[in-house]
């Protein structure tokens, strides 16, 4: 079943905590789109939800959600963090382009980030969710 065919380069994806919305980032266009998930598992009302802008190397790639519903997405300069209303809460800066990440440790309070040549660990204030535990 084809759900959408108008991306430049779809990459990372994650569901909202209630699984009523699917977020998909587009590496080429440097934005995150949000779709409503229909009762039959289809998608509707796809629209640009947020943009990953700023200085530094990197583009949308890996993407996850934390236990408060905040969306984390690779982008220019590191990991961009967006509130559930799409407000940018900030960027977790990395010294090289971030490619992907996951929440880890027993409390899911660490973010493990893979970059061009390195692996980083950063403690975060809001823990991740169990489906993203590494």
UniProtKB/TrEMBL annotation:
Gene3D superfamilies: TolB, C-terminal domain. This is SMP-30/Gluconolactonase/LRE-like region domain-containing protein. The keyword Hydrolase applies. It comes from Reyranella soli. Keywords: Hydrolase. GO terms for molecular function: hydrolase activity. Residues 3-116 form the SMP-30/Gluconolactonase/LRE-like region domain.
């Amino acid at each position: 079943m084809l759900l959408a065919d108008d991306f430049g380069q779809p990459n990372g994806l994650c569901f909202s905590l209630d699984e009523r919305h699917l977020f998909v980032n587009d590496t080429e266009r440097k934005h995150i789109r949000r779709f409503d998930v229909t009762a039959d598992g289809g998608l509707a009302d796809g629209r640009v939800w947020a943009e990953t802008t700023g200085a530094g190397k990197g583009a949308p790639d890996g993407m996850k959600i934390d236990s408060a519903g905040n969306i984390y997405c690779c982008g220019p300069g590191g990991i961009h963090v967006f509130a559930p209303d799409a407000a940018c809460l900030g960027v977790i800066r990395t010294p090289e382009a971030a490619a992907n990440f996951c929440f880890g440790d027993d409390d899911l309070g660490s973010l493990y980030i893979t970059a061009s040549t390195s692996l980083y660990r950063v403690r975060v204030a809001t823990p991740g969710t169990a489906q993203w535990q590494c």
